[in-house]
Design a protein that fits this description.
The complex is a heterodimer of chains A (about 550) and B (about 160). With about 550 residues, chain A is of the alpha/beta class. Chain A has 18 helices and 12 strands. In chain A, helix 11 packs antiparallel against helix 13. The longest helix of chain B is centred in the first third of the chain and has 21 residues. At the A-B interface, helix 14, strand 10 and helix 17 of A face helix 1, strand 1, strand 2, strand 5 and strand 6 of B.
């Protein structure tokens, strides 16, 4: 800004700039939402109105409108952010200016902000010597000039951003779409710190985000740092696709089996297996293979359908799908409640024998924890309870002696937790990670390095990979590490004394964390191992108190 | 812990786990004639019965209804849990809910399984009938001054 003076800087109203910033940012958010509505609302236009001159004109106009609305978002956002930075920096420079002025006046100098001068009264020259006083005057003048230079630089920077982002008077924001997001670009984001992924995601236009979700839902759905609502959209698409695919494969297998049986009934198996010396044997072998494949599909399909039904259940709190895959044993991350908005967020890591086909029971536990926490939160705030089946848990008890499952879960759980921090809106949420059984080992292995959580809870643990709570690196300390093992829990047999399969029993006071009460359980030790979420078990309210940050209520 | 000892412990665990799985659930068994559907109805009726002991004007809203939670993973037997919030009008004596129900359940001969009536912010009481069905009442004094009330009704493993 030419002609920038100390007086102008002194009198500038940062609040006004701040108000403008808020207005631009609100407009950006409104544009973002409206553009998403426009994109989703016009997505099926080509299917319902496929051909004809009018249809083509409508498609062209709609595409242009989508692009123009989408292109307007980033410029608004950039201007809003520039103005917000301008207001913040302006306040800082004004405070610096006041500080220099006050210091000079206290030292006996005369500061004239209007004229931009610093003078020393005559008597100072007599007292300290002219060279010293002149040096001091010079120093203050340089400091003031430095503030002015910074203000001028700020002014120029903000002006550049505004000028560069204002719409063209003739073409507006343009109706050309920006380049689509490729699979390679998305893969390159994986593994980056989630906060950086979020910044990258926000740098895309709404149209680009939508395109990435539609074209690459498998990649967007698992990308930590992408907001929960966008991951949910992507994963629901994957879920619907997988259910359709699994159903189709099952139908094809059934058709093939029916065909084989009908050919057998008609005595025509030789036609089915031409050239075979033993067509009947070949038929039974194929039917056996079909039955095995069908059983595997049925299990996966059952888990997928269970998730779909939970997502669609109008009688339960809304749930978001933060990850879904049918590869291997299948993986799923389901959040009861929105983790980006909730005041409390708990991530539940299940243990041995947890997999996609049996996901229903673990989903119930997530529902239970969300319900209990809301009941006991003193402010009645929302809690998001996430089932994190983002790892391959041991399939059988005899697999649960291997640390490899926990090792394999480590980096994914760390990244997921960091992602929750990155994408959370408003004040930071109170984040807890709870493991059950082998899930505690997976949590412990992740926390040996670092895990973004305020609290850890271990229930029914065979050890967590460390012998003392202070070796777990979380956002809290050893006092935020909680454990409980029921008296009759079978897990006590995984070691002698308190040395368990994967280290010191975390429910032992010698571990250095804190313990809480669970019901002793039934006489069946395996049943007891699964009773921590049973109704009226004290463990439930203790877990709820920890999740909601009420350590003083835990008993 | 030496590796050999840990291996021994693991083996022991596997054996015990396998034995326990085959031995089945030891929780309180209800009357053999009760079906799962009857259990669902009894859990709901028990909550409505509690509501009827309270002054008129309040209603129950379902917060959580799990009619078929497996007692163990893979176990065909299940239990029922229903969790309700008690919605009540202004001036309704919500703080009388716990003493009223405590007296009613005592007269019915139910056994107290959790007594937290002395907790200042979250008093609660849970009882169990002879068939192992449980019901509890809980209050939460919110920071806002509002008092929320809840009923939790459940069945044993069936």
């Amino acid at each position: 800004m030419s002609g920038l003076t100390l007086q102008l800087l002194f009198d500038a109203n940062a609040d006004t700039v701040d108000s403008s910033a808020r207005a631009w940012l609100a407009m950006a958010e409104g544009l973002d939402n409206a553009t998403e509505d426009l994109i989703r609302g016009s997505r099926d236009l080509a299917h319902v109105w496929p051909a004809g001159p009018a249809a083509e004109a409508a498609h062209t106009r709609t595409a242009g409108l989508r692009a123009e609305a989408s292109n307007a978002y980033q410029p608004c956002l950039r201007i809003g952010r520039a103005l917000r930075d301008h207001a913040d920096t302006l306040r800082h420079l004004q405070a610096t200016l006041r500080g220099i002025t006050a210091e000079a006046v206290n030292a006996g100098f005369q500061v004239d902000i209007g004229a931009g001068t610093v003078r020393a009264p005559q008597h100072m020259y007599a007292g300290s010597g002219p060279h010293v006083v002149a040096q001091q005057v010079n120093s203050y003048m340089w400091q003031l000039q430095g503030v002015l230079d910074q203000a001028a630089e700020l002014d120029g920077r903000t002006r550049t951003v505004i000028t560069a982002n204002l719409p063209d008077p003739h073409r507006g924001f343009g109706a050309l779409s920006l380049p689509p997001v490729s699979a390679a670009t998305l893969r390159a984001q994986k593994g980056r710190p989630p906060a950086q992924v979020l910044a990258w995601w926000h740098s895309l236009t709404p149209e680009q985000q939508e395109q990435a979700i539609v074209d690459h839902p498998d990649l967007v759905g698992w990308l930590d740092g992408v907001p929960a609502a966008d991951r949910d959209t992507a994963n629901r698409a994957v879920l619907a696709r997988e259910i359709a695919d699994l159903t189709g494969r099952r139908t094809a297998l059934d058709s093939r089996a029916d065909y084989i049986r009908s050919m057998a009934d008609e005595g025509r198996l030789a036609e089915l297996y031409p050239g075979s010396m033993n067509p009947a044997g070949q038929a039974w072998a194929e039917l056996d293979r079909i039955e095995d494949q069908r059983a595997a599909i049925a299990g996966t399909l059952s888990g997928a359908t269970t998730i779909q039904e939970r997502l669609d259940d109008p009688n339960k709190p809304p749930a978001l799908l933060l990850g879904f895959s049918t590869a291997g044993d299948g993986k799923a991350i389901v959040s009861v409640g929105d983790p980006d908005a909730a005041a409390n967020v708990v991530t539940y890591v299940p243990g041995t024998m947890s997999d996609l086909p049996s996901v229903g029971n673990d989903l119930k536990r997530a529902d239970i924890m969300a319900t209990d926490a809301q009941q006991l939160d003193p402010a009645g705030r929302d809690t998001a309870a996430i089932l994190w089946l983002g790892y391959d848990a041991p399939d059988f008890f005899h697999h649960a002696g291997s640390a490899s499952y926990a090792e394999n879960a480590r980096s994914d759980l760390q990244s997921f937790q960091a992602g929750l921090r990155a994408t959370h809106e408003g004040p930071a949420s109170h984040n807890t990670v709870i493991g059950h059984s082998y899930g505690t080992t997976a949590v412990g292995y992740a926390a040996r390095d670092t895990l973004a959580a305020d609290e850890l809870i271990f229930v029914g643990s065979p050890g967590v990979g460390v012998d003392t709570a202070s070796d777990l690196r979380i956002d809290g300390d050893a006092a935020n590490v909680w454990a409980s093992t029921a008296a009759n829990d079978v897990i006590h047999f995984t070691g002698l004394d308190d040395n368990y399969r994967f280290g010191e029993n975390p429910a032992n006071p010698g571990f250095g964390g804190r313990q809480f009460t669970s019901a002793d359980g039934s006489l069946n030790p395996v049943t007891t191992h699964n009773q921590y979420w049973d109704p009226h078990n004290p463990s439930r309210e203790n877990i709820a108190h920890i999740i909601t940050g009420q350590a003083d209520k835990v008993y | 812990m030496p590796a050999t000892v840990r291996r021994l412990a693991l083996t022991l665990t596997t054996v015990l786990a396998a034995a326990a799985i085959t031995s089945g659930c030891d929780t309180v068994e209800p009357a053999a004639t009760i079906t799962k559907q009857q259990a669902v109805e009894r859990v709901a009726n028990r909550a409505q019965e509690a509501l009827r002991q309270l002054p008129p004007g309040a209603t129950l809203q379902v917060r959580l209804h799990e009619p078929d939670t497996p007692c163990d993973p893979g176990d065909p037997r299940t239990f029922v849990e229903s969790n309700y919030s008690l919605d009540y009008p202004e001036q309704w004596p919500v703080e009388q809910a716990i003493p009223t129900l405590a007296a009613y359940w005592r007269d019915k001969g139910y056994k107290i399984i959790k007594d937290q009536r002395d907790r200042p912010k979250t008093p609660a009481l849970s009882v169990e009938d002879p068939d192992g069905f449980r019901i509890g009442v809980a209050l939460t004094y919110r920071d806002s001054g509002r008092i929320d009330a809840f009923l939790i009704s459940s069945s044993p493993c069936l």
